[in-house]
Every structure is written in structure tokens, then in C-alpha cells.
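Case study.
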Amino acid sequence: MKKKRILAIETSCDETSAAVIEDGKVILSNIVASQIKSHQRFGGVVPEIASRHHVEQITLIIEEAMTEAGIEYTELDAVAVTEGPGLVGALLIGVNAAKAIAFAHSLPLIAVNHIKGHIFANQLSDDMTFPLLSLVVSGGHTELIYMSSPDSFEIIGETRDDAAGEAYDKIGRVIGVPYPGGKHIDEMAHRGNDTYHFPRAMMTEDNYDFSFSGLKSSFINTVHNARQKGEELNTIDLAASFQAAVTDVLVDKTIRAAREKQVQQLVLAGGVAANKGLRQALTEAVTNEMPDVELLIPPLNLCGDNAAMIGAAAFVQLENEEFADYTLNGKPGLSV
Amino acid sequence: MKILGIDTSNQVMSVALVEDSTLLVEKTVNIKRNHSVQLMPAVEALFKEAGWQPNDLDRIAVAKGPGSYTGVRIGVTIAKTLAFSLKVELVGVSSLHVLAGNGEQIPNSYIVPLFDARRNNLYTGLYRYDENGCVPVEKDTHISADIWTDYLKSLNAPIQFIGSDVQKYADLLKTKLGSKFIILPMSRHYPRASVLADIARTKEPEAVHLFEPDYLKLAEAEQNWMEAHPDQSQGGGWIEKL
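After joint prediction, the assembly is written out as follows.
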């Protein structure tokens, strides 16, 4: 059978990325240009500046993806792009670039949900089998998604306030680590111990939802109280305690949901899937508590935002002939 | 030379196909709509109407700002990506120059296109006709309406004001400029992609990958950061390949 190739584009936040993916599995190229250094100046992503960087980078990154893949436009079967969720101005750059390429080369256009993309990052390193449960954790999302087939997505649990990654960035600011805080907190956590015993919100409740704002407040209060009293704080142990609270809740609820849904696979996805503490805790829990379930964790370079995962998710839509037309718009609040 | 012209830098969307100095088809919409939704379908419809294929194009002309940041980026992204992937020339034209191109050849007069930039500020420029057509006299600028009007008064010449935001400043302009204030008929106040394509026809093409909008204004966060870090360079080095 002829191989099917998709040029995929992702610009939902602060990475400009383009990739060429074969049959939803093989990465022919995956170019990611990160704006993080720019946004570090402001302590977080500034939407207008993200949009400006995307428009500067977009054709360069697409060209690099095409060159590295070593293919011509005539060898493509479709152009795919993230339509949402994300920053609207940032999404619009990818969406309009994808439309221009689709029009220029008479290619079908595929609109991909960013969250589905994160889940399908796993398809690039393993074979996804269904039914599966995916824990999606990133700066903007904390969701448990049940998939009975490659094109069926059911949110069975989600955060009621902050996303896990967002909580990391916020407490990172409080203890003065550079933006984005998650990576630094993770590294610190490995050198410390859980001595502060922060609350595990909603852990015993009979649902699969999460809440991280209480944990965040408890952390901030601990730091403020100590500073007011002039007490020394052990930031290494603080990081370890925070991380333990986050991973305990994520792992506990995920295992419970996987058990109840009787899934074949448990699939970790999203930027926070790069967190070593979470990878370890989930691996241990699955090994000990549900050895029959296969755990998929994407390689580190596919955890953050990238276009390869968009190409992997788009392949299912290409097979289903689920195409978008030229009125495609960015959808910042798109749900799965 | 087959040229596609695109202007989405403000509320108006204008798209045109021009061959040499002949307009084939043009669509100009002044209804508040989303450029991201309507631009590509409009381009496709015009190509159908003219019987052109995308790779028939020789050149793409786009209004590069100033204007609505998002609007400018949509036009620039489509133009830049089309030019890059079709390997055709790209020419950027100031959105103010496009408006100025609607001016009349009144001897010894100037043409001032303007967009409201809020807080009594304008995006504006100074143009006039010479043997090469409508050309800039001053660089486009982002400036307070009062300072700009005082400057225009000092020119002591008739001035044609162009742009749908002129009405908002008409009282100020009339008071300061008196009989030197000229306002053109309604149809001249909207950007036309055919005018843009005509201006772009004789311009040098851009380096496509490096092409970016001319916002004439830093993003607010960047402005503040630069004021706090005067010793650090503004551009470059912010993007890292992973």
C-alpha cells in the first residue's frame, strides 16, 4: 500500500513546529522552534509576542521540515494543523499557513485538536491499543480521557481550577526559579523529601476530577508564613513535598479510573509527561497494582508541544476522510 | 505579470487579481467579519473566477501594516506562506500607502492616510504624487493626533485625508487646517487590493522567510521590558531550535 504523508503544523502556544509524518507512525522530520527565552523576559507567555514570533518563524520551520523529510509537496497526502485549544493569535498563524499550503498544492486540510495530538504522541513511539485511558497533563490541561477507539474521546475527569503544569509554574515563581518552573521543581524534588505534607485535594472523592489551587495556596501560605517569621525554608524539601502531592493525586485517580474502565493501556501525555517524578510514580503504580495494563509514556522530545504528534493524530482523520475547508479558524477553547 | 493582492490590515478585507496593469477581479468587504474565516475562501473564489491556478502567479502583494495586529498577521501569513511554497515573489506594501494610493492628483497637495490608534494617537504617513505615482514623503508613524496636525499645518498646502477613521478626527483637522483640509468621496476611504497590487508591481521583492509585519509599535510587554533593560538588545536570539 502506498505510504501516506502528512505535513503537520503546530503553533498553539510558544513553539513554532512543523513535521512530516508517514502513516501516522514514522517521523520523517519534526522541527520545533521554542520561544521560551523570549517569554522568560516576562515571566510567562505573552500572547501578542508569541504571535509575532510565529509569523517570523513559520515559513522557515516549514521549509526545514520539508527539506529534512526530503520530500516535495506532490508527495504529500494532506496538510494538518492544530485548530485549538491554545492562544487564538498564535493558532491563527498555523491555521492560515496550513490553508495557504493546502490551496497552493491542492491538498486536503485536516484540523487537529491539540489535546488529541498530545495523546497521539504515543503512537510515534509505541502502538496504541484500545480501549485506553490517557492522563493528559500540561500547562493548560489536566484531564483523564477514555478512548474506546482511535476516534473516540470521552473526558471522564478534569481539573476544576488550575492545570497541574500551571500550579508548577506559579509555585516556581514563589520560590524564585526561572520560568517555566516545572522542570526546575522536578529536578529539586529529586534531591528532597516530602516533609511538608501538603493536602492531597479530592483524592478520596468518588470522581475523577482534580483540584490544584488548594495545594498551590497551601504552598504559598507555608512560604509566606515562614518568611514573615524569618524562618529558614528548605526549598528542596518544599519542591519534593509539592511534587509528591501532585503525583499522588494524579496517579491515584488515574489508577482507579483505569481499573474501573478496564482498559488495555494507560497513556501519559502532555508537557508534564516530561516530569520525572510523575513518570516514575506512574510506572511504579502500574507495575505494582495493575501489571496487566500496558503503560505508554512518550519520549521526552515528544512530551512538549510539537507538530509530529499533530501529524500522528491527523492520520486517523485522513483515514476517516475528515477534512476541514478554507473557513477553518483558530478555536482557543476547543474541547476534545 | 500575474499578481495576487491581499489587504486585511483593518476591518476591510480586499483581495484582487491583477495582470500587469489590468485588474481582473477584486473583492472588497467592509463588514465586520473574521479575516481568518473569509480570506482563504475569497482567494480561492477569485482564482476560480479568473480561471487561474495557484502556480500561474508571479507575485504576491500584501499590506504589511500598520493596522490591527491580528488582521495584518493573517494577510502576511497567507501571503508569505503562499509565496514561499509556490516559489513566487513577495512584495510588502505599507497599509497606509495602499490607502494613499486612493488619493487624487491634485497639484501641490499632500495625501495623508490615517488609522485610529486609540488614545488620540494615529497611524499615519505623508504621501504625494510625483512622476513615479503616489510616493511617501515621510516615514509612516505612530503619533499623537495633535502633534501630527500641528506638523501638517506647518506644510501650508492642501491635504487630502484618507481612511474610514478620518471622520473621528474631522473636527480637529478642520479647526487646525481650515481650507487646507480636503476630504475625498466615500469610495476613496477603503483600501483596495488592486491599488496595492499596482504599487507592488514596480517594487523590489522581499526575502520571503525574513518578511514580517510592520507594526510600527512594539508589543506593550516588550516596550516595558526595553525601558527596564535599556542595555539589552531588542531583537534576535530569542528563538531556539529544540
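Observations recorded in class. The mean pLDDT of chain B is 95. Chain B touches chain A at residues 34, 36-41, 43-44, 54-55, 69-70, 73-74, 76-78, 80-82, 84-86, 208-209, 212-213, 215, 219-222, 225, 229, 237-242 (CB under 8 Å). We will return to this complex in the next lecture.
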